[in-house]
Amino acid sequence: MYEEEVARVLSAGIPPIDFQVAAIRRCDTNEPRGYITRAVINSLDLGTLTPADYLPVTDTDAVGLALTARMIRKSLALLDGAEEPPALMAVHVPLALLRERAPEAWLSPILAQHRLQKPETLCLCFDAPLLLEFGADAHDALLHLKRSGVTLAVRGCGADKIPLAPLMRLPVDYAFLSPEVTALADDRVHSDVLTGLVGYLHAMGQKVIAEDVSSDGQLRALERLECFGYLPSESFSAHSGRGSLFGAPTGIGGADLG
Question: Residue 35 forms beta bridges with which residues?
Fold first, then answer.
């Protein structure tokens, strides 16, 4: 069924999957420090599907893993052509990977097709439910993945009903703050909550990336907290003259994937 839909889209002259990136920028200079990727799926029947549309379905089955493999290969090809690789290239990974008997065996053949100068540039990014749905098994699976040389990230830290205590037991390198936590950066009443949360994550050795930054005031606060970087909101990105947050991966480290 999936292959038939891809064939229909191709026959219409439309790429079935668009590979897009968004820059993770420094809070002080706004220079790109890393990138996060996403796949946009084009369907003749359903139109354009963003991750919010399809991840609830694909994250639980083999289609999600196949899509992730494609995104990792695209990311590695981009990094291969970069004169100066970024600090990280984050790729969404479904929780289904942690259910594999040997997740590193799934990843190794993909990595073997490329010779990265810095394997840690590839960052496997899990959504925050990882903290709820997995216990000790998650720790072991993530450690096996890290032995491949990649880094790990969790998105949605600080979101409602997502506990942070499990982070103490997981070998995570980057923590993406949820938009509602980022909003506390210019909240005079609750800004101390953000300060404490970022300090907590730093104490565990995790680099903090704020999502959905919407003002210069938030940026100044995040800089004072020594956050690794930020992702702007769509409106703030447009206001800054950069257009849409996500776009084609052009000009990354001197490379252009097209």
Answer: 23, 89
